[in-house]
Amino acid sequence: xxxxxxxxxxxxxxxxxxxxxxxxxxxxxxxxxxxxxxxxxxxxxxxxxxxxxxxxxxxxxxxxxxxxxxxxxxxxxxxxxxxxxxxxxxxxxxxxxxxxxxxxxxxxxxxxxxxxxxxxxxxxxxxxxxxxxxxxxxxxxxxxxxxxxxxxxxxxxxxxxxxxxxxxxxxxxxxxxxxxxxxxxxxxxxxxxxxxxxxxxxxxxxxxxxxxxxxxxxxxxxx
Length: 223
Hints:
alpha+beta
């Protein structure tokens, strides 16, 4: 019975995560159906365990085995209940600081959008393909991302790219010339910036005309 209850709790964790948007913070959307199927499979196994356990309640050996596993089952159930009660709130800035630099941004753009329609990730990939800063000088910019502190540099506006989940997340960012008369932006704050690209030395920076805070997007991870 306890084992069935624990399996049912973990099934609830997976099924709830599949419908309430939690997976959008942890896993690439392409893999969400796998979590849903796993939740349904766990629920089916829990029901089978419940039926079989009820029929075999008189078997002393099984009852002895359940008592032996009781402590582990209760511990597992506590973790499942904690996950159900407390939604994940990962700090993207902290995670990005612990991940390697954006060396994995190698995907080429199949087509190039007009400058004002490019996302932050589009800009990073385009600058990899066309690194000459003069090609982008004066281009309008409309991007969004979270504030990522950089060692010995001003903070960048960044995004996290994932191939599967947060475990393989890779940060990409653009340098921003933050207003000199404003306080430094707080790490992990989500901002939308409208401005233009400007050449500084051998690279371009985003010069904002307008900066406004925004809520974290429903799907903050990008492929």
